[in-house]
Backbone:
């Protein structure tokens, strides 16, 4: 359930027309295979050879074959250009929505679906600023720090996916969202001073939203139930819920009522030990003033 660990580079500046397909993502593989087949059929129906189409669309011939063979995920502008060149009347461009969803890693899509329907979201994050709060620059710096390193292509996919999840703040009606963040990650200048400063500003902006409650857990606080890792709780309008904790139930998502009660107890205790929402905003404002 958890994937947090995002502005994406202008795609026109790269010679890559698409992203790698996740072989473990059955739905994604099927979608991209269908899209590739349609592109090939449209090209052949137009009487256009692959080398000529590659020149017209502005990408290498080998990569055109990979997209048509379902091995690469085409970028939105690739589909737009193909639609125009092959005079598809908008049919190829219309595939951008499904292709856009496949672009994101499977686990991120699953989490985004849950967040998109939850009426209440609770997150305790101990090691990083929660992904829903991250700026693009901060997210990119965090993801690039991974070892072994991700490819540049994968970094941008993960950054974009993390940003896409933040659409939850624009939902109407808005869900109730609670964050508890440890002090240490807020003090860590990930990406340099300017990136750090912008990140703190974004945390403040989100923390001031009427449907968001944000709390900071001071480093000087005594031991609490979140010391063994992140906790996430999502509740839905039908009364069901899903939770996950790094330190419980093997870190796997759970909807078992007994296990959820344990997570709720732990999360409630963490919130009780953290600074109040008002104190937390003041704390971050003070921290921002020190940057």
Residues:
């Amino acid at each position: 359930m958890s994937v947090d660990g995002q502005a994406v580079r202008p795609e026109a500046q790269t010679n890559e027309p698409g992203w790698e397909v996740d072989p473990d993502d059955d739905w994604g593989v099927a979608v991209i295979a269908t899209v590739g087949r349609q592109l090939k059929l449209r090209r052949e129906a137009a009487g256009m050879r692959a080398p000529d189409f590659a020149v017209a669309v502005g990408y290498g011939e080998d990569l055109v074959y990979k997209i048509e063979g379902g091995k690469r995920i085409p970028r939105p502008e690739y589909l737009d250009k193909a639609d125009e060149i092959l005079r598809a009347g908008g049919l190829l461009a219309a595939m951008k929505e499904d292709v856009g969803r496949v672009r994101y890693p499977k686990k991120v899509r699953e989490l985004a679906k849950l967040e998109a329907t939850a009426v209440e979201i609770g997150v305790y994050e101990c090691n990083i600023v929660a992904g829903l709060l991250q700026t693009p620059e901060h997210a990119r710096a965090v993801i690039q720090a991974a070892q072994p390193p991700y490819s540049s292509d994968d970094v941008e996919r993960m950054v974009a996916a993390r940003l896409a999840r933040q659409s939850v703040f624009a939902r109407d009606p808005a869900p109730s969202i609670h964050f508890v963040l440890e002090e240490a990650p807020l003090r860590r200048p990930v990406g340099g001073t300017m990136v750090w400063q912008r990140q703190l500003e974004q945390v403040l902006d989100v923390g001031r939203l009427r449907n968001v409650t944000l709390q900071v857990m001071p480093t000087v606080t005594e031991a609490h139930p979140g010391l063994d890792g992140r906790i996430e709780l999502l509740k839905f309008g039908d009364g069901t819920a899903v939770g996950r904790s790094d330190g419980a139930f093997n870190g796997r998502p759970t909807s078992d009522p007994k296990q959820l009660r344990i997570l709720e107890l732990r999360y409630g205790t963490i919130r009780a030990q953290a600074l109040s929402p008002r104190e937390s905003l003041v704390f971050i404002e003070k921290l921002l003033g020190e940057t």
About this structure: Residues 144 and 151 are 9 Å apart (CA to CA).
